[in-house]
Amino acid sequence: MTDQPDRSQDKKKLKDKNLRGIDLRSENFREADLEKADLSRSNLSGCDLFRAQLSQADLTEAFLKQADLTEANLAGARMEGANLVQTNFQKASLRRAYLPGAFLRESRMEEANLREAFLMKANLKQARLCRANLQEAKLLQAHLEGADLENADLSGSNLKGANLQKANLKGAKLLAANLTFVRNLTCRELQSAVIDQTTRLPDNLKVTWKSETTFECREKTRRPGRP
Fold first, then answer.
1. pTM of the model
2. How many Å apart are CA 40 and CA 105, to the nearest integer?
3. Angle at the Cα of 158 (from 87 to 219), degrees rounded to 5?
4. pLDDT digits (tens, 9 = 90+) for 187-214
């Protein structure tokens, strides 16, 4: 069993620390330096991590439900299988963060930087991703049901096999994005987004370009299968 940390230690200086499997729920790590720290399987639920430095930290299977990571730096952090339900990532940097299979349901990620993030099979149901930067993000088979992607930038992202049922795509940039085999995408939703002729579409949607920026969309009867 992992020992509890010394509460008297300076929480601002935890770089490279081994905090694996520790119960840290509701602790104050505001603006703390946790760069490259091992927090895998730790309980950080409800923690204040505002502007914390967590770049390249290991948060694999960590529990961060309802934690506040507003403006935190999580670039390159590993969060595979982490519980991030209702977690606040507003304006946080998650560039190239590794989040396959992470539970991000109802998380707040408005204006977050998720460029080149790995989100394969992540659960982003009802997540708020307004104005988020998801350029070149890997969202293969991700669950985006009910997600709010209004004005998000998904240019060059890979959404192959993702579920977009009732997702809000108003103003979302899907330039050069891969939408092959996506499920539950309608013409109405596609027309609310911004696409170009390099956007790869699912087989159930037929697009006819009228100009470089305008197009007509028609839905085929048959829905595409899984990839």
1. 0.90
2. 20
3. 105
4. 999 999 999 999 999 999 999 999 988 9
